[in-house]
From TrEMBL:
InterPro entries found in the cross-reference section: GlcNAc_PI_deacetylase-related (IPR003737), LmbE-like_dom_sf (IPR024078)
Single Gene Ontology MF annotation: hydrolase activity, acting on carbon-nitrogen (but not peptide) bonds, in linear amides
This protein's name: GlcNAc-PI de-N-acetylase
UniProt keyword annotation of Repressor present: no
A Pfam family the protein falls into: PIG-L
Keywords for the protein's UniProt record, in alphabetical order: Zinc
Gene Ontology annotations of biological process type: glycoside metabolic process
UniProt keyword annotation of Zinc present: yes
Length: 259
């Protein structure tokens, strides 16, 4: 599996904590590929089961007016192919409208439902805090993903009395161990994954989303540079590539129960 490095603030120790199942949330098709596809490729190569949940259909994306009628089907097909390139075949959609996503109770209930179904060791989601250094990372839908997932993770997922109809359907409350957030402010990042061996897979996945990239060369250069910068901040050797996360321990040996 990919080499990990955590700053002194990160609660996750890859030598101690084991991951078997991951559920990833994103606002649009291609968000996960930009934010975490290298780490996901490393996880699936190590036998970890990874699922995706895309909250919107990406219907406001793209640049070609002629594609409007088919953009939802086109982006779903792109996401399916991109996911397969990093070992993921389990993809869910909440079918919210692109550009209109909010952390409503309807959205949070959908998140709680899926987490209780999958029962992952790690929920990976976009960060709820705005990145002022690169505002493009902080599309309002991205922030809404982070807020909805964070609210769902605690307390609703582990509270048997939250959305009681889910428990009545047989979806029991579940204590999630880890929340990993991506695409957030640099100052929040406390954990880095060395994805040097999976850069090509990540870029191949991003390239699949051809409807979204008017300047492919500039996009690839920016992605490569971002991974190199993350590796430098992690203290990895010269020439390595990394993805950065804000890792939060939700439930562990020292967690005090409470709603």
């Amino acid at each position: 599996m990919a080499h990990s490095a955590a700053s002194a603030q990160s609660p996750f120790n890859p030598d101690i904590h084991r991951i078997g199942r991951v559920l990833c949330f994103a606002a649009h098709p291609d968000d996960i590929d930009f934010g975490a596809a290298g780490t996901i490729a490393a996880w699936t190569a190590a036998g970890i089961h990874v699922s995706y949940c895309i909250m919107t259909d990406g219907d406001a994306g793209g640049f070609d007016p002629a594609q409007r009628a088919e953009i939802i089907a086109l982006r779903a097909a792109e996401q399916r192919r991109a996911a397969e390139l990093v070992g993921v075949t389990d993809i869910h959609y909440l079918h919210e409208r692109d550009g209109y996503l909010e952390p409503t109770h309807a959205v949070m209930k959908g998140v709680v439902k899926l987490i209780r179904e999958v029962r992952p060791d790690v929920v990976l989601a976009m960060h709820p805090e705005r990145n002022w250094n690169r505002l493009q990372k902080s599309h309002p839908d991205h922030l809404a993903v982070g807020e909805a997932v964070t609210r769902a993770v605690y307390p609703a997922v582990e509270n048997p009395f939250a959305y009681p109809e889910l428990a009545e359907e047989g979806l029991a409350a579940y204590k999630l161990p880890w929340l990993w957030l991506y695409a957030g402010p640099e100052e929040r990042e406390n954990h880095f994954e060395d994805v040097t061996d999976h850069v090509d897979a990540k870029l191949d996945a991003i390239h699949v989303h051809v409807s979204q990239h008017p300047d492919v060369a500039a996009m690839e250069a920016a992605v490569r540079n971002g991974m190199h910068m993350s590796a430098q901040r992690a203290g990895f050797a010269e020439g390595r590539s990394a993805e950065a996360f804000h890792v939060v321990a939700v439930n562990g040996p020292g967690t005090i129960a409470g709603f």
